[in-house]
Design goal:
Blueprint (H helix, E strand, L loop, with lengths): L34 H16 L8 E13 L2 H7 L14 E15 L3 H14 L1 E2 L6 E4 L2 E4 L8 E2 L2
Antiparallel strand pairs: 1-2, 3-6, 4-5
Bound molecules: zinc ion.
Length: 157
């Protein structure tokens, strides 16, 4: 189906936001991370991917994976459209770097008309915030708006 990732559910991101495509964290020394901390990072990423200015109008965007960083062979990297690692072997199964924790989101167009209809019905159902009239969306903490009015009852638009 038709898909333009630059067209979003909301064309009005908050004025104090910036557009990025990646976050990198280099720890000064190796650190221990608990499963609960990983989960909290994942929740922030899910909050970001679920905000209406980060959701493609004609598609979906979600946290697709988290775990050790895969080290793809040069052949696999080329096949996947990734930048080949010069130190990686030419062929073979991917190896995993347990010292690098990776989170990855995916976005794609709706696959079926039914999926599109259901997504539009859900977006419509969340309505506008009854306090500030801004669009609402689902976050890990519940329904919220750009001003964080969390859970204000949906107002008919
Ligand atoms: Zn609000």
């Amino acid at each position: 189906m038709e898909y333009d990732p630059s067209k979003r559910v909301s064309a009005r991101p908050p004025s104090n936001s910036s557009m990025i495509s990646k976050i990198e964290i280099e720890f000064g020394i190796p650190v221990h991370v608990t499963a609960a901390q990983e989960r909290r990072i994942a929740e922030v990423i899910e909050e970001i991917t679920g905000q209406p200015w980060n959701v493609p109008l004609e598609g979906v965007h979600w946290l697709a994976g988290m775990g050790s960083k895969p080290k793809f062979s040069q052949a696999d990297a080329l096949f996947l459209g990734r930048e080949p690692d010069p130190d990686a072997p030419e062929n073979g199964e991917p190896d995993f770097d347990d010292e690098v924790l990776v989170f990855e989101t995916h976005a794609r167009a709706f696959v079926t008309h039914r999926e599109r209809e259901e997504a539009f019905r859900e977006r419509e159902g969340l309505g506008l915030c009854s306090v500030c009239q801004e669009p609402q969306w689902k976050s890990p903490a519940g329904v919220t708006c750009v001003n964080g009015h969390g859970g204000a009852p949906a107002k008919e638009s």
